[in-house]
Amino acid sequence: MTTVLIADDEDLMRAGLIELLTADPGIQVVGEAATGREAVALARRLAPDVVLMDVRMPDLDGIAATRELVGIVPEAKVLILTTFEQDDYVFGALRAGASGFLLKRTRPEDLIAAVHTIADGDCLLSPSVTRRVIDRMAQQPVPDLTGQARLAGLTQREREVLSLIARGLSNREIAAALFIEESTIRTHVKRVLLKLGLRDRIQAVIFAYEAGINQTLATSGEPVPGPPDRDSSREAADPPAKRLPPPAFRPPSTTLR
């Protein structure tokens, strides 16, 4: 059973989300909050598996609340659900430790699937958000030297895996690009996250671009792996984007595994 805390300052939105999520027998809504401060307090007391977090809330906004929450209740996964797809919101939420970012125009069934995905420890972004993260980070002009020092603890293969994670590839695609088993890739991903002290793949994408890993591989003479051809296997791994009509919702779902 996946336990969920809903944080949104609109009464109607909270009521709609509760009705939607409780229709799934595998989800239990354990609490609701109307402010960011209340969300942090309830998360500390209830320790939910997933927190559905709005961005614009009184007292403490959703991004600041996410930052506090993941520090206090690290096992809770935050899924940002908002009307706004502004860059400041997207990157602020991801840097704060959110495990996913979806829009309120998402289909109800996709939102339910997203809750389960986040609860299982995977990350989830809409395709448009994934593209924006990669494009924004690719414009990072000066690599962070602290991040580059942390890269020294990775093996060459782990650097290659991190580089491909940063390009938005799934484990299946990375395995195809490097001609090794997907189970081996999962092991490499876990080791990369552990060595770098990162929460999840989203944090890995941000770290990789801030550390300039692709620039580092290129200037060091090491090959930078390229993505595999996008064929039907890609479509099976990452289903096409879909849209959540108000007051229902619709998360276009790209799962980062």
Features:
257 residues; alpha/beta; Rossmann fold
Structure description:
By secondary structure, this protein is of the alpha/beta class. It folds into two domains: 2-126 and 244-256, Response regulator (Rossmann fold, 3-Layer(aba) Sandwich), CATH 3.40.50; 135-234, 3-Layer(aba) Sandwich (Rossmann fold). Helix content is 52%, strand content 13%. It has 13 helices and seven strands. The protein has helices at residues 11-22, 36-46, 62-72, 87-96, 108-119, 127-138, 145-151, 156-166, 171-178, 182-196, 201-210, 213-220, 232-237; strands at 2-7, 27-33, 50-53, 77-82, 100-103, 123-125, 254-256. The chain has a seven-stranded mixed beta sheet, sandwiched between helices. α6 (127-138) runs parallel beside α11, α8 crosses α10 and α9 (171-178) crosses α10. The longest helix has 15 residues, at 182-196. Mean pLDDT is 80; it is low at 216-253.
